[in-house]
């Protein structure tokens, strides 16, 4: 299989946008529009300053299949990455409103910074427990003993299996995946694709044929987990994925284990979908194609009795032929047993998992709920993010002014907001009825996946699947390409200021 195409030496066609980033998020502001998405941009009134990822272990890995023939719009020039604005009706549509009338709820990754913070907090709590336990033991053994002899003794700290150090772990991982390829002896971090609360993802290349695999290395067991619970979680994720066979779902090959170390071998692809969206390179037809592909993936897993529960831009990757794949099933749940009657009662789910802007309202307000409508809601939010390149709201609660405007509830002044129309008219007209139905607050009245398939807009989408390619181009960019585009945009902005 050929090596992944390096796009860092290419020119990408992009719309006129400006970007700003920091180390914890990726933010983008739009300054142009080639789509008739209407006015009313003031629907998004609050700046999205900081988000919360509530997912069970998430691995934002770039895991998808490598395909043979790239379908990319590129000019083989490495010296000029000047963004170009197309006059075509299919030109980049992500920017839809003038930034002067709108304060953006900027798109943001929910990756390393949040997970690092959670890990640090967990380590701090664990250390505090150990210290407190030792202090209690000292107190029991001295003159204070007679005050406590009738009280319950403190529970001992759970004993974790011995964890290998960094060098031992790298050697163990290399040994486990030897049949798929070799991880270089240099620092493993150089080969890390993604890292989150669920673990990290490495890449290996098989020398015999050059095929590349993604290797998910699960995080170690924590002090809060029993050995049984930890193993159950790892094996559950593998069992949910191993029998799935669909081009829009990441393919899993094998789960490997040695003592406390677990790794999962998966398909690989280098194109991170969040990066593509942030690049502002997608045309209207390209957005529609990706939306249908992610929906087809959800239709399939629902038919298998599985809900993803953490659908977001970060959990999608794209192959070299423009095929989108859903990844990271660490929060997935089975709502119906395999081969059972589709009409039987579903198994409700509990808990809040996922990232706040993508969550369905019932995830926050109900103790248990049907996970299928929640996936439908998240799909609609992803569509909005692709078109608008920003979140509609920070969290689906009426304490959020943008969401309160969407549901039309009165604010502190007692005046009711105008409702969902203010958001929907920012979207392409043909998509509004479907997306509006998918964003129905009442889960039992929300558009279902069966209804989505019969929708005229959805049915008429020209999409890439199998060997059939749609009548549009897929613009594929990597992080390196995005950095070059950002640098060029910054340079152009500085020149414009000098000339102005």
Automatic annotation (TrEMBL):
GO MF annotations in UniProt: ATP binding; protein serine/threonine kinase activity
Extent of Low complexity compositional bias: 8-34, 86-100
Span of the signal peptide: none
Tree of life domain: Eukaryota
Catalytic activity: L-threonyl-[protein] + ATP = O-phospho-L-threonyl-[protein] + ADP + H(+); L-seryl-[protein] + ATP = O-phospho-L-seryl-[protein] + ADP + H(+)
Biological process, per Gene Ontology: filamentous growth
EC number annotated for this UniProt entry: 2.7.11.1
Protein kinase domain location: 187-458
Keywords: ATP-binding, Kinase, Nucleotide-binding, Serine/threonine-protein kinase, Transferase
Composition-biased stretches (Polar residues): 54-85
Residues that coordinate or bind ATP: 217
Region (Disordered): 1-102, 142-167
InterPro entries, sorted: Kinase-like_dom_sf, Prot_kinase_dom, Protein_kinase_ATP_BS, Ser/Thr_kinase_AS
Top EC class, one word: transferase
GO cellular component, one term: cytosol
Family designation: Belongs to the protein kinase superfamily.
Protein name as it appears in the record: non-specific serine/threonine protein kinase
């Amino acid at each position: 299989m050929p090596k992944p195409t390096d796009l860092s030496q290419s020119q990408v066609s992009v719309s006129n946008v400006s970007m700003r980033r920091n180390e914890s998020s990726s933010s983008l502001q739009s300054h142009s529009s080639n789509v008739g998405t209407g006015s009313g941009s003031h629907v998004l009134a609050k700046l999205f300053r900081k988000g919360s990822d509530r997912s069970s272990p998430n691995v934002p890995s770039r895991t998808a299949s490598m395909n043979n023939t790239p379908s990319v719009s590129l000019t083989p020039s490495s010296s000029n990455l000047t963004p170009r604005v197309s006059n075509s009706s299919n030109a980049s549509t992500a920017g839809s409103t003038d930034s002067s009338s709108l304060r953006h709820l900027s798109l943001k990754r929910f990756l390393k910074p949040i997970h690092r913070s959670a890990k640090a907090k967990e380590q701090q709590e664990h250390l505090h427990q150990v210290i407190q336990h030792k202090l209690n033991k000292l107190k029991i053994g001295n003159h204070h003993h007679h005050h406590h002899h009738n009280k319950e003794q403190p529970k001992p700290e759970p004993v974790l299996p011995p964890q290998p150090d960094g060098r031992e772990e790298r050697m163990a991982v290399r040994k486990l995946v030897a049949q798929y390829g070799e991880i270089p002896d240099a620092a493993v971090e150089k080969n890390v694709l993604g890292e989150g609360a669920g673990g990290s993802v490495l890449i290996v290349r098989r020398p015999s044929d050059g095929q590349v695999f993604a290797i998910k290395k699960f995080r170690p067991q924590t002090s809060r987990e029993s050995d049984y619970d930890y193993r159950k979680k790892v094996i559950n994720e593998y069992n949910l994925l191993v029998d799935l066979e669909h081009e829009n779902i990441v393919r899993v090959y094998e789960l490997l284990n040695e003592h406390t170390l677990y790794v999962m071998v998966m398909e690989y692809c280098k194109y991170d979908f969040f990066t593509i969206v942030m690049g502002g390179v997608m045309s209207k037809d390209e957005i529609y194609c990706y939306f249908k592909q992610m929906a087809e993936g959800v239709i399939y897993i629902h038919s298998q009795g599985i809900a993803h529960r953490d659908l977001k831009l970060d959990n999608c990757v794209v192959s070299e032929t423009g095929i989108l794949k859903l990844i990271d099933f660490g929060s997935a749940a089975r709502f119906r047993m395999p081969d059972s009657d589709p009409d039987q009662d579903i198994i409700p789910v509990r808990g809040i998992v996922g990232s706040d802007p993508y969550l369905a309202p019932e995830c926050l307000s109900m103790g248990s709920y049907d996970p299928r409508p929640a996936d439908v809601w998240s799909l609609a939010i992803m569509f909005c993010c692709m078109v608008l390149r920003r979140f509609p709201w920070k969290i689906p609660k009426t304490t959020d002014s943008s969401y309160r405007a969407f549901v039309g509830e009165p604010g502190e002044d007692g005046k009711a907001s105008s409702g969902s129309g203010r958001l929907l008219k920012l979207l392409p007209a043909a998509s509004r009825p479907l997306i509006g139905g998918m964003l129905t607050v009442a889960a039992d009245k929300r558009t279902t996946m069966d209804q989505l398939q019969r929708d005229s807009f959805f049915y008429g989408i020209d999409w890439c699947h199998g060997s059939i390619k749609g009548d549009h181009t897929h613009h594929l960019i990597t992080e390196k390409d995005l950095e070059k585009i950002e640098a060029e945009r910054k340079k152009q902005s500085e020149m414009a200021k000098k000339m102005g």
